[in-house]
Design brief:
166 residues, alpha+beta, Rossmann fold, six-stranded antiparallel sheet, 6 helices, 25% strand
């Protein structure tokens, strides 16, 4: 199983792709900036964390607010929140396994729909599809998010808790 593609798009007034990322089919994927030779250029604000957060949301994270709230900014980016809601922005993560492509789409605004392979599904069905495809399990417990948290950690709290699992 590997990541194939991440696409972020507006759905209102019509579908418009904001960003599309094709993942390397072999080897390592890196998110880097185009920093110039000027030492003061930092590489900040190129979207590294945002891409990771959107992937996490497509993997059924419940927290949409991490897209427009940050510890560094100490507040809410109201412009971004407004853009997500008014344009009904969604993200699709494509996973590929043995040449079979699976598509998981999440709305990046509250109470928006979820889709699996372009079919609208409930929150529970969405998680069940992820669990079945990634972990080959149809059992109710543990949930997909409970399982994935053992393998993927994308914030300081999760990284700090790794010691408890060792």
């Amino acid at each position: 199983m590997r990541l194939k593609k991440l696409e972020v798009f507006k759905t209102v007034p019509s579908k418009e792709v904001i960003r599309s990322i094709e993942f390397n089919s072999r080897g390592l994927n890196l998110i880097v900036d185009n920093t110039s030779n000027i030492k003061e250029d930092s590489g900040n604000s190129v979207g590294k964390s945002t891409v990771i957060h959107i992937i996490d949301i497509c993997l059924n994270s419940s927290s949409l607010t991490k897209l427009y709230k940050s510890k560094e900014a100490q507040g809410e980016n109201t412009e971004l929140k407004k853009l997500l809601h008014e344009n009904k922005v969604q993200a699709t993560l494509e996973l590929v396994d043995k040449n079979r492509v699976y598509s998981f789409t999440r709305s990046l605004y509250s109470r928006g729909p979820r889709f699996f392979n372009n079919e609208k599904v409930t929150d529970k069905q969405y998680g069940a599809h992820l669990k079945d495809i990634i972990f080959n399990s149809k059992e109710d417990k543990p949930t997909f998010r409970q399982l994935i948290s053992k393998f993927v950690r994308n914030d300081d709290a999760q990284l700090g808790n790794v010691i408890y699992y060792l």
